[in-house]
Amino acid sequence: QQQVKQSPQSLIVQKGGISIINCAYENTAFDYFPWYQQFPGKGPALLIAIRPDVSEKKEGRFTISFNKSAKQFSLHIMDSQPGDSATYFCAASKGGSQGNLIFGKGTKLSVKP
Amino acid sequence: EPEVTQTPSHQVTQMGQEVILRCVPISNHLYFYWYRQILGQKVEFLVSFYNNEISEKSEIFDDQFSVERPDGSNFTLKIRSTKLEDSAMYFCASRRDGINYGYTFGSGTRLTVV
Q1: Residue B82 pLDDT > 70, yes or no?
Q2: How confident is the model at residue A100 (pLDDT cuts 50, 70, 90)?
Q3: C-alpha distances out from residue A96 to A45, B33, B100, Å
Q4: B65 touching A, CB under 8 A?
Q5: What span, in angstroms and rounded, lies between the C-alpha atoms of A66 and A73?
Q6: Sign of CA dihedral A7, A11, A14, A16
Q7: Alpha-carbon distance B11 to B13, whole Å?
Q8: Inter-chain contact A95–B42, Cβ cutoff 8 Å?
Q9: DSSP character for B36?
């Protein structure tokens, strides 16, 4: 019940295309859903996050869509660029003093020029 | 922009030795974490630390591991009697209190146990 399932494992997109990564969770106590971007040799960096009281959040080219009833959320990268090539992790956490993140297995995105 | 600083960036140790991984969290953050990432796998939670004590730990964080905040700035992870399977990237993270729960991760320490 603590798992976050992420798909696909890898994704190849042409420059200018839309990249879509999906995640699903089971624990309804999760109340914070961030997406992290990780470049080789670096730590995960927060990209965008959403709370379950909204269905969509957009920041620039990045959008999170959240479906509370289906317990699913997804990351959309519009106008994908070669510089977006990285590994993307979805995560979920419970609130309060804990807040430890449960990560998905990651999606390696390659954007071809 | 404030950063979480980790040292060393890479550590090689003999199996059975003790290692201490060091982190300097962002100064106004109250919650501190250690995560690890075995090569090519997902990031896994190890332990969280708040108000000078462990608030939660995963099943990975057994008696081999300990954490400490020896002064007002450093946060350390000690691994006693290292094993080959402890080889991983260890990330320190911190976050401030409040509704946004924003984490900041350090760049990690790559631990290689030989």
Answers
A1: yes
A2: confident
A3: 22, 15, 11
A4: no
A5: 4
A6: positive
A7: 6
A8: no
A9: E
Q: Does A96 contact chain B (CB < 8 Å)?
A: no
Residues of B in contact with A43 (CB under 8 A): 4, 91, 93, 105-108
Classified as helix, coil or strand, B5 is strand
What are the pLDDT digits (tens) for A39-83? 988 889 999 999 888 999 999 999 999 999 999 999 999 999 999
Residue in A100, A104, A105 closest to B33 by CB: A100
User: Does A41 contact chain B (CB < 8 Å)?
Assistant: yes
Angle in degrees, CA B56, B72, B44, rounded to 5: 30
Chain B contact for A42, CB < 8 A? yes
Question: Cβ–Cβ of B107/A43 closer than 8 Å?
Answer: yes
Burial class (CB in 10 A: 0-12, 13-18, 19+), A93: buried
Q: Do A46 and B33 touch (CB under 8 A)?
A: no
Measured CA to CA, the distance from residue B77 to residue B84 in angstroms comes to 17
